Automatic annotation (TrEMBL), chains A, B:
<dbReference type="InterPro" id="IPR025722">
    <property type="entry name" value="TetR"/>
</dbReference>
<dbReference type="InterPro" id="IPR001647">
    <property type="entry name" value="HTH_TetR"/>
</dbReference>
<keyword id="KW-0238">DNA-binding</keyword>
<feature type="DNA-binding region" description="H-T-H motif">
    <location>
        <begin position="24"/>
        <end position="43"/>
    </location>
</feature>
<feature type="domain" description="HTH tetR-type">
    <location>
        <begin position="1"/>
        <end position="61"/>
    </location>
</feature>
<dbReference type="Pfam" id="PF00440">
    <property type="entry name" value="TetR_N"/>
</dbReference>
<dbReference type="Pfam" id="PF13972">
    <property type="entry name" value="TetR"/>
</dbReference>
<dbReference type="InterPro" id="IPR050624">
    <property type="entry name" value="HTH-type_Tx_Regulator"/>
</dbReference>
<dbReference type="InterPro" id="IPR009057">
    <property type="entry name" value="Homeodomain-like_sf"/>
</dbReference>
<protein>
    <submittedName>
        <fullName>TetR family transcriptional regulator</fullName>
    </submittedName>
</protein>
Length: 217, 217
DNA sequence: GTCTATACAGTGATAGAC
DNA sequence: GTCTATCACTGTATAGAC
């Protein structure tokens, strides 16, 4: 792995563990055993590193959160989405821990973030419409946007919510599974009688995963 | 108003507008037209100011979010709670914009925050049980805790969610009303047929308030 | 590409006069 | 209670040698 990639991955790891504010460029360099000067050879500044991480974040969503095509099984796709949301919430924790700060220091990044989130909102709405087509949920047109916002907010801020009530800031995988369960709770509220069973099965799956992880530690 | 109180209120205002990280003790002092030395006469340090603000925050909740007593009209109380949540979300925005940072720099504050949030969770659960008693919502025992967490998370992180998708960080009152609507959306999903109308009336109220505000600006 | 050394700009905080 | 002056410290970022 190139030094540049190593810097990115070390940054993600340290940011997630200690928060973006607490981690300086010096910390990143010394944790890697390189000099600060070397770090600044590869990146213009700290924001530059964060922009590269944001690119990874949006890549992840573009790759794993593709809109449904008409023939797809909506429920099957939903399961896939939940798994990739797990990945996202786990890997990019720090981004939402400090979202306001990060965006307020970098106008360009903020513009990119806003555009990306608007795009994402539409995709989430498409997924909800597809779930409705598939008879899995029942929801009024006018409520779709509101629900989509709630889903996005939950995915974004579940980890900060959890971290705020831990003395040790470290998250476990079980915490993320609990976040996925909150997403399912939101959907379940609109679930049709016929498919309640299937959604409950998904719920049981993540409940079991959360339990297993808890016992491992 | 004493200089001490002025410092607290100026801090809240500046923190809300520009974020806690961006505002230094020097900014606060110069915005008030006093010297930094004077500020440090009244407060030990920046954390000390924030602790005083947290005291205001928890006072507000203790005063306005009293548990229901058996005779109370649950729906009427709900309306009161929503209004005081509005107040809370409006006045203490910054606290949740930077929650992780703020708590990670002050162990004592974090302990206080965690204890307070645990207490609050129980109160929210009590309110939900009372709403169920009153026949307004229908919910399984096992889902109450999950819903209570979702409600708390929504109240806490609605403003950061909105701010993150604005180029200018300023919030309007209409944004907060939209947050209250999200709280109602969560409740509505568990609402009984008989009381759906009344909850929809509450919804219409805040929808109207959001509209009015929007047109004022 | 990588290092060492260092300049520079805040920020938090204090001492002592008034 | 309030001010002025000032300091120590930290984090970012660059210059120049290797």
């Amino acid at each position: 792995m190139s030094t540049k990639d190593k810097i990115i991955h070390t940054s993600i790891e340290l940011f997630n563990r200690h928060g973006e504010r607490a981690i300086t460029t010096n910390h990143i360099a010394s944790h890697m055993g390189i000099s600060p000067g070397n770090l600044y050879y590869h990146f213009k500044n700290k924001e530059d590193i964060i922009r590269h991480i944001f690119a990874l974040y949006s890549d992840h969503l573009h790759t794993h959160f593709k809109p449904l095509t008409p023939g797809d099984d909506a429920l099957e796709n939903l399961a896939g989405y939940l798994d990739s949301l797990f990945e996202l919430m786990w890997r990019f924790q720090f981004f939402y821990d400090n979202l306001g700060d990060i965006l307020s220091r970098d106008e360009e990044l903020k513009k990119g973030y806003i555009a990306f989130q608007a795009e994402l909102l539409e995709q989430v709405k498409d997924v909800l419409f597809a779930l409705r087509e598939g008879g899995i949920i029942c929801i009024e047109d006018e409520d779709v946007t509101e629900l989509a916002h709630m889903l996005k907010m939950t995915v974004s801020f579940w980890t900060p919510y959890i971290k705020a009530r831990r003395l040790s800031g470290e998250l476990a995988r079980a915490d993320i599974y609990n976040g996925i369960l909150k997403v399912l709770l939101l959907l379940k509220a609109h679930c049709t009688e016929q498919h309640l069973e299937q959604v409950n099965q998904l719920r049981a799956k993540y409940l079991a995963l959360a339990e297993t992880e808890q016992n491992d530690h």
